[in-house]
Amino acid sequence: MKKFISGSIENISLSKLISLLPEQGCVELQRDGPKHTHNWHKHETDETLIIIQGNITFGIESKEVTCGPGEYVVLPAGTLHKSTASNEGCVYTICFRDVLNWLS
Fold it and tell me: Which InterPro entries match (predicted)?
């Protein structure tokens, strides 16, 4: 089983975000209000979450990772995870695939 990856990128521009779009389909732009929690769950597809504004703490399997603007988490399909937005909330993209090549 692949493990999750986290890191950071510089200069998130609109054109860079647009380049995340698949040939056909979408990415999700998500806003979580202050302290909003998504309880433990998993997905059938890979997900890459890129933080745009605010902070969010992910519980990923047995680890905890806090991300802020410009930071990301790549969750392989089937990874058990949860998240809680910070006091100010959080805005982030959800890409329904591993976009690690795009991030480098």
Answer: Cupin_2, RmlC-like_jellyroll, RmlC_Cupin_sf
Reduce the secondary structure of the chain to three states and give it as a string.
CCCCEEEECCCCCHHHHHCCCCCCCCCEEEEECCCCEEEEECCCCCEEEEEEEEEEEEEECCEEEEECCCEEEEECCCCCEEEEEEEEEEEEEEECCCCHHHHC
Residue-range domains of the chain with CATH: 5-103 (2.60.120.10)
pTM given for the model = 0.82
**Maximal C-alpha separation, the chain:** 36
Q: Could you give the CA distance from residue 39 to residue 32 in angstroms, rounded to a whole number?
A: 13
